[in-house]
Amino acid sequence: MHRLWMIFAQAVTISVAVLFVLSTLKPDWVGERPELPAITIQQAAAPAATPSGKVAASYADAARAALPSVVHIFTSKEVKSQRSPFADDPLFRHFFGDRLDNRPQQRASGLGSGVVVSPEGYILTNNHVIEAADEIEVALNDGRKLPARIVGRDPESDLAVLQIKPEGKLHAITFGHTEQLSVGDVVLAIGNPFGVGQTVTMGIVSALGRSHLGINTFEDFIQTDAAINPGNSGGALVDAAGNLVGINAAIYSRSGGSLGIGFAIPVSLARNVMEQIIQNGSVTRGWIGVEVQAITPKLAESFSLPSSGGTLISGVMRGSPADRAGVKPGDVLLAVEGRKVNDPQAMLEAIAALAPGRKAGFELRRGKEKFDVRVEIGRRPALSRGD
């Protein structure tokens, strides 16, 4: 009896061991597989399609549309050689005469980019590209090189217009709409960086309406991470369809190369300046003759102002439109033609947009009293750079 019990126990032990091995290695042999919990997988959305229904896998069409309109600009100017320290020495003049004063003058060269904006040969570029140049040559996309003349320039927006007279046809760029541009839109920067030749870089719109950068008097920059380098200045910033949305103007850099922070002048501002220059040779802006400063909380407290809104008028030019209208230092400008003014830059832009000769309404605060005045807008004086 004891022998039979031992055989039974060993058989049960072996059977349990076999079942354990099978359930571990081949669970489907011993029964239905346990159902695993459901896992939800979110698939990535398909790439956005273009208006034609095709996925935008390449921006070759946009580049192809804009490249023929972007030109290279080569400038040169005469630089006076440094006067010899011995030029005024009587002994040296006795032996060398005036030869020390008759040395050949040196020429400095520069380069940049520009955009053909009309079949009549008008080219839009940056003022700093052609400033002080006495010779300007434009190299077209097809290899032609032509002399250019300055139609006009506007240092306060850093824009200038050139004109060339080609024998053949010119490919003018198509203007886009800055107001339709959004942060995140793809843009292409086209120009001639470092003189290596025509180059296209891609990025996105990083920000809109950048101002208070201290680059120009009037600032409303498009910020982009598309690589912009020296030589790109004056070139085109185009959208994904190849339409002009900005003129490349400046970069933020500690090394001189691109760090992914570039700035372009929006085409809305560039077009307005360009049309005024072509029609009148210069840009006309409004002016009332005041000096202003931002109202900080500390200033608001010292002047007993109810808030820090508005702009403090710190000075009034004698005989200016503001002086004739009774505006005084210490007044706070609150609004121009109903448009609220919260800082000096906003005031500058609001007044500059007014046509000289017309009367405009200004809302002011003097002490605790608010009042309105009508000021006849004058013409903003040109910068003291020969303009």
Report on the structure:
A hairpin with a 4-residue loop joins strand 6 and strand 7. The relative contact order is 0.10. About 5% of the residues have low confidence. The chain is built from 8 helices and 21 strands. It has 3 domains: 102 residues, Thrombin, subunit H, CATH 2.40.10; 103 residues, Beta Barrel (Thrombin, subunit H), CATH 2.40.10.10; 94 residues, Roll (Pdz3 Domain), CATH 2.30.42.10. The chain is an alpha+beta fold. The strands form 4 sheets. The protein has a 7-stranded antiparallel beta sheet with strand order 5-4-1-2-3-7-6. A 6-stranded antiparallel beta barrel has the order 8-9-10-13-12-11. Strands 15, 16, 17, 18, 19 and 20 form a 6-stranded antiparallel beta sheet that branches. The longest helix is centred in the first third of the chain and has 24 residues. Keywords: Hydrolase, Protease, Repeat, Serine protease, Signal. Belongs to the peptidase S1C family. It comes from Zoogloea oleivorans. One of its GO terms (biological process) is proteolysis. This is Do family serine endopeptidase.
